[in-house]
Amino acid sequence: MADSYLVDPDVGFIEEVSRLGGADVKKCYQCATCSVACPISPDTKPFPRKEMIATSWGLKDKLIGNGDVWLCHNCGDCSTLCPRGAKPGDVLAAVRAATVIEYATPKALAKMVSDPKKLPILLAIPAVIFIVLGLLLKMVGVDWLNFAPSGDHLWQADYIANYLVDIIMIPTFTFAIVVFALGLKRFITEMHANALAEGKTEKETIDPAGFVQALIKTIPTILQHRKFTECSENRERSTAHMMVLFGFIGLFIVTGCFFAAEWVFHIEGPYQQINPIKWLGNLGGIALVIGGILLLKNRLAKKDQISSYWDWYLVGMVLGLGATGLLTEMFRLGGLYGLSAIIYFLHLILVWSLFAYTPFSKLAHIAYRTAAMAYQEYSGRK
Ligand code: SF4
Ligand code: SF4
Fold this sequence. Notes:
oxidoreductase activity, oxidoreductase, transmembrane helix, 4 iron, 4 sulfur cluster binding, iron, mainly alpha
């Protein structure tokens, strides 16, 4: 006898998914072309057809904590072939956005990050923090964030400011890690419960050591973008995505090295242009800008695919971070110190925003998709 299931539709969830770019879900008539077309869907319990019906019925509990939603890389193959124009790839992207909001703490901040009207407030928060820092430093005679400097003050002399910037960034970064940890704990637990209920795995419990092993096995697949290259419709997006990913990895390494140089070895900047870590920083910045431009170009060219605010936020963040980082350095080297200081101020706002808002934005897929792919490996589902 077939399993019975008490349907408890959540209309608010359907509205939320529609708001986040999945409004076309209503057009689906369950032909299953999308599940057949998807190049990376598993043979058993394939996606995205089952997620389409769950979304149109508002079955939130079948979608939040569903690992399959995250295995989708939004290549768009299924959307192109869907005879009804229901855009299953975009619907899954919207469900992912709703999942990030659901697992985020505090939820009010997650709602703000997904709302374009709240962007000025979100950017004003770090702006105020750094303006107050600048004013406090001025009171103790440190000439920091002076937008009309007579020389290279900002980077040459005021080490105290660099330490204070770090002291602002460290708790912000820690906050992001804690939000991710809480969200991932719930996500992995619910993903496993869902997989058990749907017969996707036979493992009763999650063995942490086995899960970590699966995670390590998954990392080369992620770095090489193997899943992206299995798609045909949006294959070129893999180049852009790869540049952005490696750009961020490079800049993360650079930040870690300079942090250790300052705090552990007390080697103060500015660092020489011939320093290899500086090269890596410049390459990371260039990769972000080129990757961001390619993402922008791809999204503008794909008129038949939905690009929601969720997507534009990520593109804007990538381009903004890369461009302000590179321009700060270029203006400084060109002797345009005032302009450089203004751009640096914008750069600090974006870096703080990156740390604080990543667990609530599309960038959170770094953690959630990685966890879902590791879980797929762990559960032995092919
Ligand atoms: S989303 Fe499109 S292809 Fe998939 S089941 Fe619905 S109508 Fe068919
Ligand atoms: S967008 Fe691509 S990966 Fe996602 S379900 Fe459709 S075909 Fe599969």
